[in-house]
Structure formats: structure tokens, C-alpha cells
């Protein structure tokens, strides 16, 4: 018996990777998948792990490692799989050499995402097998199983998790690392060069492999039938299995560890043993539609939602028709999301608002520039899109139309996909202004390093991409770097750059306030000097409040000493009281 420890789902996946003998992992951060790579660092002696600039690159790195003969993986959130869709569909044809598993974390309930897409749909479209664990122990053990199956059937696998699994803890039994010998590399043009003649043959081959796998799924231990009371039979997988066991402890359950392809014979056998079949799956009716297409009567999305997370109570209500008169848990007061006190993004948005600018926004902490009191951002769609959308507006309406517009993008997002959009602006003779809000980190997902921070995932020093130099290398003449808290200079710079009939890039290089742990100055407001003009309140800093008489108070437990309020006060009512030591 190995040691038993409590682990987060993400931690257990990292442990599973270690135990499975994985040698290479590449990832781009994305909640709720980010911590897998961070936990992997503890195994750096045996596993190489890295941050890639985006998910497409991460998947390609993992495919390269697999072809060379080692077990490899890539991690991402669900929308990251869209970025990696191009290699995904083709590696499906190619298959693997060393086992290849892509961890993809879905986010039912949209805790931290821009949509609620279901990775199983993408996997089915790309004909990629999917394994889904229900708790931390399975996260580790099924992950190892995924590598064995990947090699046995020559298929890349997707390991699907959700926020609830990634961020819940459970008991895990540790095992030794399997020492997996590297598979020999063989030059196989037909398998690894996806040009039409080869791909046609591979398509036939993978259809065959998937059928074999679907047959094998009927007897795989990770697909488990639990026959109890046969009045109700539930087909489920992943985290919803836990809700089923809590709400319907007497019911019979078919718990699927592999959700693509489905084990048809096993499902038919299960259905024959029970009276009423329910299919309980969060998000899309992926299992349900297939099962019903086989002529099986089952109840699914007629009574369950396709939105958000499920719960045991929701199942009690829907299946048992229980009128649950539950005491409402105490509600915390609503707190709309806001930028942290001292966040450099606030200063940038304050100036943009003052200039009555519109911004094509992007994904990151700075998306909060869309909400009051800043309300500068008009659009946010997906990573990298701000720059290309601004370009589209200009091409639609002409250069004068975008004179009061900028694109706003973070440093990590710029390197992820923004850089391609900027190339497009230069190439296609755009005149827009792009603001790169460079806070020297991937802030939104919890401070991951990236290609311009000068540190690797293992915190080793490395070459730091020079973002300004990169923009200049594209031929952009107007590349200006500004301290974001120098609001007078920033205002002047924005006015000058948007007036130009050429592409401009303004880089506001000021580190994320949470990165800099040094002691900062503190500011206080002098009530006697305060004229209640409200200027200092405009940027919406959470450290600033009004006294009952309308004068200003600064909460010294929240103030981070950025000085934005002081620079806005014309009456000397805000003063630095404690300089950094
Ligand atoms: C395709 C994709 N991958 C990952 C994410 C998760 N994610 C959201 S914002 C972001 C990057 C934020 O960093 P940055 O652009 O530097 O802005 P900051 O949050 O630091 O202001 C990431 C990785 C996502 N939403 N979409």
C-alpha cells in the first residue's frame, strides 16, 4: 500500500503524470487547468514541463515529444482547445508513438470563462477518445490508464476535467513512477506527414482504431456498472456521478470513465436491467443523443439543464420531484468584480475614459475596464481578438472612425495570439493604436510567467522577449513605452498616437501590484483640504471611500501606494505619509 494523501484534482493529475512516466508537458495557463503545470514542477527531475505561448504550440510540442517516443501531455482550458484545434484534428489521424494525453478543463457554471462549451463535442468532432474522472483518486489513476490506452490503440486521448474536479480535494494513494522505456523513433511518412494521400489512408485507419476502442470500452474497468435497486438506472460520468450517489444512493448506476467512444453493449446491458433510465451529464447531451439514437428510451435534457453545474439537490428535485424547502444559506453581500487597489490597468482606463475613447478589449484582468466606473471597453471575445477587431472596424468604416478607438491587450495575451493580429495591421496598412498593458505577468490566471518575463515555469532565468523590439521588428515606427501612472504623459501619448495615420503601439510597462511585495508609500486624505470634487474617486479605486460629510477617506489596509489619487487631486488634499523602506 502506498502512502495516502489528500490532493486537489489538478494535483492528482500532476501526480498521475509523474507515475505514468510522462517525460514532457507543455501548457498555456487557463482556469481551471493552470495548477497542473505548477504542481508538475515538483517532479522536474523526471518530467520536463513548460509554459508555451499558446495552446496550439503546447499541443504541437507534446505531439513532437510523442513522435520521438516518450509519453507526453499538454494542458489547457476548454477554450484553449479551440486555439489548438488545428493540430488536434490532424494528430487524430496521425496517432502517437509515446502515449499522448491532452488535459482539457471545462467550466460548467462559467466560474472564469467566456463561454460554457463542452469539450466532449469537440473531441467527437475530431474523433479523439475522452476519459473523464470523478474524483482525485480517479484523476491520478485514470490519467495513467489514458497513457496505456493511447499507446495500445495508437490514439491521442483527451482527459476531460471540470472546475469542480480540478479544484476539489480527495484521497489519493501514491505509487512509484513507472519507468517507461522510450519507444524507438521510426521515420513513418504515411503516418506522420499529413498530406492528402497519406491522410486519406489514416482516416480509414483511425475509424478502425476507434471501432476497436469502442468494442474494448465494453469491458474496460473504468466503465463500471453498479446494480442496486433497478427502478431507477442512471448513466453518468465525471463529477455528476458524485451528485447521483448523494441524491439517489439506492439507484443503479452506469458510471462511464470513458465518455468517447461509448460502450454500446455495456449501455444496452445496463438499460435491460433497469426500469427507467436517466442520463445525467453536465452541459451538452453528448451521451444522451448517442444513446437515444440507438433507440433506447431515456430521460435527459427534458428535465435537466444544459447550463451551469448540477448538484444533488437539483437531481432530487428533477428526478424524485422532491419539494425541497431548504433553508437558504446566508448570502454574502454581492461584490462585483473590480480591479485590485493599485492595479496599473486602472490608471490606463482612467486616462482613456477622460479622453472619451472606446476600446476593443481582450481577455485578462483588464477586461474589467468594461465595467463602471471605468466603462471604456466595448468588446471582449477571445484571446488576441482586440487588435484584429479594431482592424476590422477601420476597414469597415475608415481611419477617421477609429480616431477615438484603441485596442487594449495584456502582455500574455499579446504573445498568445495578439502578435499575429498586429502583423495583420501592419501588413494591411492599418492606422490604429494598440495599447499593450504590460504588467509583466499573466495576472488573470494567478501570475504565470511567459515568454517576456525572463523566467521559466521552473523559475529559472531565461531570455526575455522584448515586446517593444518585437513590434519594431514588424516595421512599426511608433512604439512608445510609458509609465502608466504618469497620467499626463500617458494622456499626451494617446492623443498623439491616435492622431497619426500609421499603426502605433503604446506599451504601459508597469508591474502588477500583487507582484511587487516591497513596502510602498501610503497615502492619506486630509479632510480639511478636501473640496469634495470627487476627482480622486473617478478611477474607482476600492481603497477610497466617502465620509458621511462627503470628504474622502483612504483605507490604509487597502492602499498600495500607486499614487493615482494624489495625481488627480488639485487641492493637495492627498498626501504620501509613509515612504517605502
Ligand atoms: C484560449 C484561452 N486560453 C487561456 C485563457 C485563460 N486566460 C484568460 S486571460 C489570460 C491571460 C491574462 O494575462 P494578460 O494578457 O497578461 O493580462 P492580465 O490578466 O495580466 O492583465 C488567460 C491565460 C483564455 N481565456 N482563453
Automatic annotation (TrEMBL):
It comes from the Bacteria. It comes from Faecalicatena acetigenes. PROSITE patterns: 4FE4S_FER_2. Heterodimer of the IorA and IorB subunits. Binds 2 [4Fe-4S] clusters. In this family the first cluster has a non-standard and varying [4Fe-4S] binding motif CX(2)CX(2)CX(4-5)CP. Catalyzes the ferredoxin-dependent oxidative decarboxylation of arylpyruvates. It catalyses: indole-3-pyruvate + 2 oxidized [2Fe-2S]-[ferredoxin] + CoA = (indol-3-yl)acetyl-CoA + 2 reduced [2Fe-2S]-[ferredoxin] + CO2 + H(+). Its cofactor is [4Fe-4S] cluster. This is Indolepyruvate oxidoreductase subunit IorA. Signal peptide: none annotated. Keywords: 4Fe-4S, Electron transport, Iron, Iron-sulfur, Metal-binding, Oxidoreductase, Transport. The lineage of its organism: Bacteria, Bacillati, Bacillota, Clostridia, Lachnospirales. The keyword tRNA-binding does not apply. Pfam families: Fer4 (PF00037), POR_N (PF01855), TPP_enzyme_C (PF02775).
